[in-house]
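Field reference: sequence -> structure
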Amino acid sequence: MDLPRQIVALQAVREELETALGGDENWRALQRTGASSGEADPDRRDRDARLVKALEANPLYLAWSNVGEAIDALRDADAGFDAEDETDAIELPEDIRSRIRVDAAGQGVYTALHRDSIDDVLRDLKEHHAAAVLVSVNCCTPRDATRVAMLVREFPRVPTVALLSDLAANAPGAVLTLGRSGIQTLVDVRQPAGWRRLRDVLLADQSRDINRLALAQLSVDLAGAHPDCWRFFEVLFTRPSGIGTIRLLSRHLGVIPSTLMSRFFRARLPAPKRYLAMARLVQAAQLFENPGLSISNVANRLDYSSPQSFGRHIRGLIHLTAVEFRQRYDGEGMLQRFRSDLVIPFLSCLRTFTPLSVAIVRGQDRF
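Structure field:
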């Protein structure tokens, strides 16, 4: 596509976003002040700045602004663009418009990866971490029903949401097909309120993530504990990927590994290595709730060197094979095991424990 047609396509997107922004009172007020000519310039600038500041919390506005910047950049690159070229405007396909809106609605909540087939989605779920799956009603055909049903059945912990963006002729049948396939949530995004509901649905599901559940439960168990102690437990369930050893965990916490281990030993607490290992099993147990994930998939997701290493890790900690572990524990069950083994028996000590009080300066450590 040449530059003029790219500009026209982006202008069509911007108009779509402006229509969606019509439900935002700050946007409407900004349009009114822009049309006014009797207000003093300094007052108008201050008022507009306040409205823009408020609008920056709306992901649709951020998308609208970014698209505008892209149009300006393309116009600079194509000095020969003539506004009359807009008469040759192209109509973006509905699936492209929906993808743009999905990206805009996800600002600050999720990052969307668009796929053209259910098989591609299944592959992503096995190889990467996905928080949710959005299925376009308009792109679903009866042939997809079996694959969608497999997705819902094999990944029950990954919410699957149907999006209705256009009431095409096949939409009612497609909605019924998705319902029979096991999708229980349908969001109508033909109006701006629908995109807000989509964000609400996805945010609500985040509250069921095992890491959030763990921190919520531990915040009750460790009420009144020293901030040092809470920081240690918080990092167990919020650590970046790749932190799977006590050395790396200590570096992340800013404390010398031997010092950390010594403090746990002197307090007669289980070793910090055991806390980290059991926290990883809590996360593994929730991943195993998805039948579509193999032992190898889970081992890779949690940064074990191999499925065999993962298996040895489980057997060494709780004397089960990986298969037995999968059959016995779900995420919440393993969280309760974590609490009963490592938290509840040591509450009186943990509430006064300060494992991180002597920190080191990053860059001067000797790991």
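Note: The longest helix spans residues 3-21.
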